[in-house]
Amino acid sequence: MPHVKGGGSHWHMAEPRDTPMACKRHWEAATGGAEAVEAVAVEGEAIEGEAIEGVEGEGVEGEAIKGEAIEGVEGEGVEGEGVEGVEGEGVEGEGVEGVEGEAVEEAAEVEGEAAEGEGEAAEGEGEAAEVEGEAAEVEGEAAEVEGEAAEGEAAEGEAAEVEGEAAEVEGEAAEVEGEAAEVEGEAAEVEGEGEAIEGEAEEAEGVDLDALIHAARQGATLCWDTETSGLVGHVIQIAIVAVPRATADGMLPNGHVSYCRHWALPGAVELDPRAVAVHGITRSHLNAHGCGVQSGLRAIAAVVLAGREGGAQWVAHNASFDVARLNQTATFHGAPALLERGEVFCTMLASATHCSLKTRTGRAKPPRCHELYTHLFQRPCEAQLHDALADATLLATCFLGGRRHGWW
Hints:
- By secondary structure, the chain is of the alpha+beta class.
- It has three domains: 1-95, no CATH class; 98-203; 218-404, Nucleotidyltransferase, domain 5 (2-Layer Sandwich).
- The chain is 49% helix and 12% strand.
- The protein has nine helices and eleven strands.
- The chain is rod-shaped, with a radius of gyration of 76 Å.
- The termini are far apart.
């Protein structure tokens, strides 16, 4: 509550102090006078008036207002220039005591609590800010994880694409392997067929050779021919046709025994192109279809031996050429000569005087085998020439024709 200090004819108000009390005093113009005091409650009774003038001395002494005598004052405590000329101390003693202290303590306590609340609020705001920061950090980490997940998904997509390409390549490889397996199967089938053919050929060769050896032991006429690598070369094809002794003169009967083989040509032996132009037998054909020369020589040696045992007759057209080429081939491979020239009847020399063919100079000319056929049968020869088996078959026919004519 503000003090009223006196001194002279005028009173003035000291600077009011703030209190937590529910009453408010308003002092106006202490030097201009007070006009009214409104609604001042003292111990429940109102004191109203417009002025207190001429109060001298101490306006209120003692315990006029003390303790908690002023309560529930509303409005403005003192308005206007309500107290003039008050001398002495306006209020002395313990007019208002206890209330101010209690109010100050309560205010301080409230202010402390408010400050504490503000501190707690500030601490809460700090914690909230820290939580917000942590939340932001978590969001950042979540965003980073999402980015990594997106990268992972992209990598998975690329990996899936690569796996798809790898699967496609594996499929193509499997397809190629399947085709290769199919080709291998076909090759194996062809190889099997080739082996079967070779087996049949070997079987046929064995049958033919056995039948030929048997016919030679029975004294058959053995008409034979060769194709060679050149005029002074090696035998590369040999054929023998057996004419049974009881065969009638004339045409060669059906079911006669024949034997024909190609012989492989050693690499060191030249194949004369002029000979190839005549018979058409190439080295590649010999490599593919020719038998070993040693085995061929042994087969012919067995027939020669059987023929000597059975009194068989060997016949050739231009015999000196064929015997020389056969023996040369045997000698080259370390075998003995197989036939003597005197063992072979030559139809070319024996028919020369009967055909009466002349050279350009008018000398007697020995006939070729197809010319002999034409002279004997009075028709052109339609046989395929320069194949050992065809020539040996033609020779057998001519031998029978000449024998029918009594030429030998």
